[in-house]
Task: inverse folding
């Protein structure tokens, strides 16, 4: 089984190198989308060329913008024209695996055909969805690069009716990270070409990256194969928080989570937790 591992990176080539080293295997190729505003040369020098491809059609990304969706789309388009991969695993440059690459391949082989993507359907009674409704039902102009855009946004949302998702789609999500079959990825790319209204809708959703892909997959024949994504994330606030930067004190919770990946890590914040996970993976390799 061949796997394409897509890494969305924006900082710290040394930490990205560590991530690749821990997950490396003959059957895994790595594709790096580096934020366009970041100098690519230090990453090229640090990471080298062995089983690593840098996405050519890079996007300047910013949190909350559709640019993160576009970066993923561009990356999937390039990957799906390459070698024949069974899975595309999408992670962040601040993630780490909790098992070796070989173990990851065996896990996917045992769960062949499963789409690991967070696809929690919209529920108006759910406290998280209720709190985040303005993201979906109002126009968010975060992609606009003009002065006074938030004044315009306020006027637009006063005048225009509540937004509705097109074509009877069920809105789902709340994580951008996934591990899906290449067949599923190709379906997503094809459906985007056919259904520009769904792209137009998400262009005005804040943080569309957390919902765009899961919504398309959930509203397809791949729905029956969906399981929760493979990431452990610790939130500083369940409703509207940010993912915590993990520390050594979180080690037991991380390794007992049953997940394959964890995020986020920052060696400048706490390098010990990175070393602990590296040690665990290396020890397991000798026992495996």
Result:
């Amino acid at each position: 089984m061949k796997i394409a591992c897509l890494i969305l990176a924006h900082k710290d080539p040394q930490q990205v190198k560590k991530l690749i080293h821990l997950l490396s295997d003959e059957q895994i190729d790595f594709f790096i989308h580096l934020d366009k505003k970041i100098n690519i040369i230090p990453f090229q020098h640090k990471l080298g060329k062995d089983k690593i491809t840098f996405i050519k059609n890079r996007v300047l990304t910013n949190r909350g913008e559709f640019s993160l969706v576009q970066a993923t789309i561009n990356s999937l388009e390039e990957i799906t024209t390459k070698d024949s991969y069974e899975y595309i695993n999408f992670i962040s440059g601040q993630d780490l695996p909790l098992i070796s690459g070989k173990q990851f391949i065996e896990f996917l082989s045992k769960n062949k055909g499963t789409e690991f993507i967070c696809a929690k359907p919209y529920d108006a009674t759910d406290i998280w969805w209720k709190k985040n409704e303005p993201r979906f039902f109002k126009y968010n102009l975060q992609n606009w690069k003009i002065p006074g855009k938030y004044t315009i946004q306020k006027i637009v949302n006063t005048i225009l009716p509540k937004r509705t998702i097109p074509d009877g789609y069920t809105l789902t999500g709340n994580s951008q990270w996934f591990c899906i079959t290449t067949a599923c990825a190709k379906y997503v790319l094809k459906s985007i070409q056919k259904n520009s209204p769904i792209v137009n809708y998400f262009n005005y959703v804040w943080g569309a990256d957390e919902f765009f892909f899961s919504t398309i997959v959930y509203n397809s024949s791949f729905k029956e194969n969906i399981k929760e994504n493979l990431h452990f994330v610790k939130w500083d606030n369940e409703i509207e928080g940010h993912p915590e930067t993990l520390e050594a004190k979180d080690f037991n919770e991380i390794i007992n989570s049953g997940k394959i990946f964890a995020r986020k890590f920052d060696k400048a914040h706490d390098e010990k937790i990175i070393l602990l996970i590296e040690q665990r993976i290396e020890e397991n390799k000798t026992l495996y």
Notes: The chain is about 40% helix and 15% strand. The chain has one domain: 3-121+170-287.
